Amino acid sequence: MKLVVVSAGLSVPSSTRLLGDRLAAAVGRDVPAEVQVVELRDLAVEIAHHLTNGFPGKRLAAAIDAVTGADGLIVVTPVFSASYSGLFKSFFDVIDKDALTGRPVLVAATGGTARHSLVLEHALRPLFAHLRAVVVPTGVYAASEDWGAEGLDGRIERAAGELAALMRGLSTARVPARGADGFEVVPFEERLAALRA
Description:
globular, Flavoprotein-like_sf, Oxidoreductase, oxidoreductase, Rossmann fold, seven-stranded mixed beta sheet
């Protein structure tokens, strides 16, 4: 399986990237996955050019392919003006509106204060609901005081477990389910349609 982390952190080192890495590591403990990180900071110029001319550069096209081909996504943004960063939004603006339909997504954000934690519910979740992605129930927000404090690890593990479960569920949905006796399990609606034909 392929897990892609989209990080919109601007600094090096970045707490946004650190949160993405910790979430990816937690998902990897639950489900075997090849992890790829897309650093939006490195794609800023290509994203701007795509918005103005309609054509992605080579690195941006590769990033879009990675995101749209992933079995699961972790998206992490710093909070600017009580919302996701403009760079983060611009990246998802250049992706086809139907490309993330049904894709499991874990939303996360970082900020200087806990007062911005509702960005997950008021900005990130609606964005990915609009893109018809499947957003895991638990989002992870990390304020400056959360690093090294009690509670962040538990939120990371819970959210990662939810994403891993969705990724496992979607991968098994692609192959016919088989019971313990080896017989193929066919959904009732399919069996009924076959009988009517």
